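The instructor's notes for this session suggest beginning with a concrete chain rather than abstract definitions. Hand out the sequence below and ask the class to guess, before any prediction is shown, which regions might be ordered.
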Amino acid sequence: MALTPRPDLSNMKDMSEQVRIAALSDIPPGSSHELIAGGRVIALYNVEGTLYALDGVCPHAGGPLGKGQLDGCIVTCPWHGWQFDASTGQHCLTEAIRQPSFPVTIDGDDVLVDLP
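After discussion, reveal the predicted structure:
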C-alpha cells in the first residue's frame, strides 16, 4: 500500500472570518465594550482613537474584560484586578500570559474583527 503525501498547505490563506462587531460611532475614545461575535466574547477598546480587540474572557477566573476599566491602554478586569495591555493582550505583571487579540478594521462606520 502506497502512502499518500500530505498536501502542501503553506499557500493557503488565513482561514479567519471578518465579522462586523459594532458601529464606530458607538465606541468613543477611552471606552471598553463587551460584545459577542462569531460565538465568542470580544472585548473592544478605543485607546485614543485606535481600536483593539481581545478575547473578552479573563484567563484568571473568566471575568468580563470588556467591562473592565480602561486607563490609557491598560484594562483592569473588574472581577479580580488582573491588568492587560489592550493594544497587545500582554498581562502587565506576568510575561508568560498574553490574552489572544484580533485584528480590527474600520470600514466607514463599521468596526470589523478578524476571528479565527
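Then share the key points. The two ends are 37 Å apart (CA to CA). DSSP finds no helices and ten strands in the chain.
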